[in-house]
Design a protein that fits this description.
4 domains, about 25% strand, alpha+beta, 22 strands, about 525 residues, five-stranded mixed sheet, six-stranded mixed sheet, globular
Amino acid sequence: MRLVHLAYQDRCWWLWLEVELPEEEVHSPEEYSFGGDEQDLEEFWRLFWQSEEDGEITESLFWPPRPVEKRHFRLPSQEGKPIPSEFFVGTVEDETVELSDFIVKALPVEAGEAVAICESAAKNRRILRGFRGASELLAWHGLFALCNQFVYQGGYLPAVEKNEGNWYSCWRPMPSMVEQEWLLAWSQQAPGATLSGFRGTRSELANQVVFGELNRLVREESVQRSNEEKIRQEEAMGKFSPYLQKMIADGTLSMGREKAARKESLHDRWVSSLKSENGLMEITSAEGERLSEEIYQWQERFFHWRSAPLRVALSLSEPEERGLWPVTYWLQSAAEPENRIALSQLWKGKKEPNLPGLTWEGSIREWTLTTLGAGALISSKVNFSLRSASPEGFTLTTSEVVPFLEKEMPRLLENGFVFLLPEGWQGSRKLSLRAQGKIQPMVLPNKGTPQAFSLSWNLSLDGEPLTPDEIRKLLESQEELIEFRGRWVQVDQGEVQKLLAQWKKQPEKTLSVAEAPPPR
């Protein structure tokens, strides 16, 4: 069995293998004796990327692999001699074990290829026969999943960076509080093998990996949209090609020569490079520094907003009239949640009210509107509430409550919002079908008056038997939220209808005492 490793070094991914038994002959004491050779790497790469079609093996476009290189990785050793990297899993307790530099034969892989290998290991640690995924592959898979979440939720902002003397446009992740906590936990718990090729802390490594993968995903998506738009434009232009050629020949169409002659502004060049494949900008060092400062000042307000010691809370209340569930906005302290005021008070008067004991340099009204604006990108209800200059909340119908709680609320929570549910909220309750038996006196022929067993079926909600009137209401209702004995509970309507149909088919039975089922 060979362990499959992925190391991150110099902003590139490197695939290397670890064998169970070291080589008998090691060319240099600096070489990691447990490292796989070129044949091992070539075998894994060929088997991983080949596919079966109609029983025949068809090799993919990823073959042949790139040339194998020798890389310096930090790997465990004992008294200067290499030992298996299983010591990387968890904390090394043996004081004689240390990390040393060794030369390892590694194969350079693209980021997308690294993602595919980690996804395979997440499904099954035994990636191929004879190849098992090392512990760090699962950690990398978690970071890649986080990057996909950033792209899906739009959790990033455009920026610019300087690398090796050149200026590049880029995208920086803007993690929510939940995502920040997840990254912190990753930095504390990730296997030590993640640091084999990286000189720095796990936190620095996570930030660099997330930055690189996010930019790859966003650029691929942007380039794809740009190519699709270009194809549509070419198809549209093709329909008018004879007319355009004639107009150009007549001089009645200049093809925008005047516009092309004007030099693009620095901002235009930055925006244009954000849509390119590598983000390289043809600008001077002075222009790069100026653009970087402008972007920093623009983003500073955003970071100031994210760091505010405030939270917007959405309080859901049970319906009072017309069957509508009111959702009220509240402003509360992040450190002391009980310190809150309704947003209706925030908009009153010219002077901004403040929460008792809160000190923060910034406009609370502006912060609140900005926060609700971010929530409007997630929730259509929050977006609708912003039609008012002084939003105080919104309402939900009974049929809208469950979809809102299951789909929109989790994303709002990830972005720093707080939810206050009604007191005594029961959440989801389970409907079940149970048989109930009763002993009652019945006259049986030629048997005198012995006791008989009457068997009937009843529906119960979370263990509480339902009355005929409550069953009738269930039959009439199509809502996932129902009012049950003075409180609102959530039920699965599909399961409700299924159990109701079964209940109708269950006949009542009268059994003798001998035929009665044993007590439970």
